[in-house]
Amino acid sequence: MAYKLSIEEENKEIARRYKDLLKGAYQSFTDTDKKEIRKAFELALEAHSQQRRLTGEPYIFHPIAVAKIVAYEIGLHATSIIAALLHDVVEDTAYTIEDIERMFGEIVAKIVYGLTKISHLKKDQDASVQAENFRKMLLTLNDDVRVILIKIADRLHNMKTMDAMPPDKQVKIASETLYIYAPLAHRLGLYNIKTELENLGLKYTEPEVYNEILDRVTQSKEEQDKYIETFSNIIRESLDKEGFKYYIKGRRKSIYSIHKKMLSQGVTYDEIYDKFAIRIIYKSTDKDEKFDAWKIYSIVTDTFRPNPSRLRDWISQPKSTGYESLHITVMGPQGKWVEVQIRSERMNEIAEKGYAAHYKYKNANERENGLEDWLNKIKDTFENANGSALDFVEDFKLNLYAKEIFVFTPNGELKALPKNATALDFAFAIHTQVGMNCRGAKVNGKLKPISHILQSGDQVEIITSKSQKPTIGWLDFVVTARARNRIKNALKESQKKIAEEGKEILTRKLKHLKIDLKEKVVNELVTHFKLRTSQDLFYRVGIGSIDNPMLKEFISKRNNAFVSFFKNRIKRSAVKQEIIEKDEIVDQYDSLVFGKEEEHLDYKMSPCCNPIPGDKVFGFITINDGIKIHKQDCPNAISLQANYAYRILSAKWIDSTKQEFKAIIKIYGIDHVGMVSEITQIISNNMNVNIHSLNISGDDGLFEGNITVSVKNRSQLQKLCDRIKKIEGIDTVDRIYKH
Ligand code: MN
Known about the structure:
Layout: H1 7-23, H2 31-47, H3 61-74, H4 78-85, H5 89-92, H6 97-119, H7 127-139, H8 146-160, H9 167-187, H10 191-205, H11 207-241, E1 246-252, H12 255-265, E2 276-282, H13 289-303, E3 305-306, E4 312-313, E5 326-331, E6 337-344, H14 345-353, H15 355-360, H16 364-382, H17 389-401, E7 404-408, E8 414-418, H18 423-430, H19 432-436, E9 438-443, E10 446-448, E11 460-464, H20 481-512, H21 519-528, H22 534-543, H23 548-561, H24 569-581, E12 591-594, E13 604-605, E14 617-621, E15 627-631, H25 637-643, E16 648-654, E17 661-670, H26 675-685, E18 690-699, E19 702-711, H27 714-725, E20 730-736
Parallel strand pairs: 2-6, 13-15
Antiparallel strand pairs: 1-2, 3-5, 4-5, 5-6, 7-8, 9-10, 9-11, 12-16, 14-15, 14-16, 17-19, 17-20, 18-19
Helix pairs in contact: 1-3, 2-4, 3-4, 3-8, 4-6, 6-8, 7-17, 8-10, 9-10, 10-11, 11-12, 11-13, 20-22, 21-24
The protein binds manganese (II) ion.
């Protein structure tokens, strides 16, 4: 459709759109607000006056439309509306951030700066680049969450006006929308925007699929309308008799969701039975709102037989996005199962628009705080992110789509967590320090390990101990991004500390051998031990996995190699350069372990997929040939897992220097006051050793104890035993082997 308007008509249209922007916003504006919004509009109008959109329309249509989404659908305040109007000014015109700051103050300038920064991110399509973009984008949240919200509005309008764009660009932008923006909108409770983004995303990434489903949906519309009418007519009388003010409408599944369901369940369009739901939206007062929902529920189920397993009560326990509604599936007319959603007008608005609507129903003061709370909550989700960008995105997306469970604190406070969350996740959700020191949990009054998977409705009390520290094994069972990030940070910190100590130890040891710890020697050591960085080296010395005999062996090799040194000089300097650049401790996957207990077992690599260390793998118990290792994406894997699930053994690659193992120490001696506390003190002062259990018995002044500890390696255990031996009265300290 070609765009043609005379200049006069165009100016009228701009004025009309601007007026429209101020009409339906959620927030009421003060006179100052109105003046500032006007000022922003005029600046944007002037700055973009020479620009047109690809459609031929004046550019200013775009910022006005974005500001409108921000005001109507997200429900943000004047500041965000101003920033939305200005969002492309610095990017596209001669105005600078300083100009914006001078005219509109620091906050608006900061938001506009954030938006400009995001559009400067690389636009390549590669998953890892996209992930990096996403990550950077989320990190701007530390500046101001409003940046993301305006960015989503910006993306929505761009998606709606993408027809004039070349097809290859359309696909790029659309897939980025599906990958990043739609999940984000979902998380933020912006359901209408999310649905629009998904549908538009599908329209441009898979136009044929989109059009086919659209056709089918259009065809079946009449039939659906009729069905809904029949349904309504049947219950209308009962609802009217109770004096309800309500309306009933059909809610069609979005094109994108239909497509997703067809894919995931391998069914045709006709085989999807829940293509639409029936929504009963009623007027109510604050006081009766909940009661009314259940009254309507009972009217509906009196008439139509309910499916008892399909009742969802989001009214008593709203989702963390604020969603409230009562869902039931009933056997409707023509013997068809149909979902009925019962909700008040207030709940309906929240369901469609998210938090903005939520706070509309509170008084001005609560509203202000509520929006702040919401923005803070979003920020918290992204806080403290580290690790590789791709990991981060995957973690984040897991949290986005995961089903939620609800658990209670001992005070009855409700916490929402993703499905499969463990006691440890819960501990981190309460407070970082509670997570770090988490020892166990009382779930509904019973003692459970920290890896215990929580269920909706559980009441959880966390047990902490100051001596508890995060271990690498914790990462195996936490599912929230928050817990993962905090644990990873803590591990990194402690590795750094060990590496620092290791460096000192190494300096001392080499001094004894008359060698100075120079860069050249460090590089030779790194090469000798087949490590990747100097930090790896220091870390391994620090935990004792590189010990004196190994160092001596290095020295003697070094002396022998001295002669041939000059020959290899060039090669070495190449190695050296690579080494100096990194100072991170790198995982070296050198050992395969099986099952929850991380046992070492004999195995063979399967020739069909040839896994290498670091691959995601599993073990398969063969009849004649022991355990065979397959990659998880091996073509044979699916059939093996489907047909012989009982012969599958979970397996993973680990860095053996970071693995811990349990050891039992037996102690005999002559008892004296304070002996137990001396022993425990020695153990807990020893970095990286954890006590699992302590069993002491005394008899006639004699003392016998079993202590189970976890340590990183044998030399660490040896050191520990030596120290305990020095305690007065201790006679023997031995490692014992038993289960
Ligand atoms: Mn824009």
